[in-house]
Amino acid sequence: KTENENKTTNTTADIKSNTNSNTNTTNNIGSTSKTEENKFSEDTIKKSIQSYLNLVGKRDGSPSGMLQELKLMKKEVPINSEESLTVDNYKKTNIKWSTFKSAMMNYMTEEWFNSNGTQGLKEVNGIVYYFDGGSTGTEYEVESITIKGDYSDAEYIAKVNNIALDGSKESEDIEFGVTNQNGKCVISYCDL
What we know:
Low-confidence stretches: 1-37
Order of helices and strands: HHHEHHEEEEEE
Radius of gyration: 22 Å
Oligomer: single chain
């Protein structure tokens, strides 16, 4: 064989070898990713979903808790002025919406933020307003993650404990996706 024929043969063998490697490790999160840019370690993915759930748990009970978690608000300070409340009882902050959105991009994609990241919050003249339901929110603990289906580099199932106020735990499975956003592993969707 000529030198070029040998290179072609080796390349084909290498591709077959890599394909077999991927097939044999379909449920191993650390296996070779379809695209290098979406490749994250199991630990990184687990931390990303845990951080996301921490925010969502706080937001669902008290959006001010989420703003505190994002370090955008030190503590809830009641503003006693009528102009600080909207007609539908949302409370005004001094946080710019663009600053809030930028902080959220460390945890989720812009598409997910626009469709699911703002419950209990709204923008009025470029400022964040929030509705405070007065509850403490929900605490989640990610026990484990597994790849969804036969093989994926972006879709997972998390086994999550929902921790009640009395400390009891209720287990549930949550489906979610991740993507690379400016070098960070962020949530692209979550069925919670």
